[in-house]
Write a structure and sequence with these properties.
The chain is mainly α and 91 residues long. It is 84% helix and 0% strand. The mean pLDDT is 86.
């Protein structure tokens, strides 16, 4: 996740709303790492659901932005796909 955040912050043309969603994901991922140690499956599932929802918003912001650098689009798309896959595995 931090890779997508670094990629977005490195490009000054990235819309602010996309950066905000990516930053939110980065922050939530850090919280999720702590939660994983708890082995509380319900809370972990809820956390992954929340992350995937934020990932949806980031991907939507990418699409609404129009012509973004392919590296940015790929970073956000890959992150969203990985979160969606994780969500499917947990449910």
């Amino acid at each position: 996740m931090s890779e997508a955040s670094r990629t977005c912050h490195a490009d000054r043309t990235i819309p602010k709303d996309l950066i905000n969603w990516v930053d939110e994901l980065d922050k939530e991922c850090k919280s999720a790492k702590k939660l994983m140690a708890s082995n509380d499956e319900d809370r972990i599932r809820q956390c992954v659901d929340d992350l995937e929802r934020i990932g949806d918003r980031a991907e939507r912001a990418c699409q609404q932005a129009g012509s973004l650098d392919a590296k940015i689009m790929n970073a956000v798309s890959t992150m969203h796909s990985e979160l969606s896959d994780l969500k499917r595995q947990l449910h």
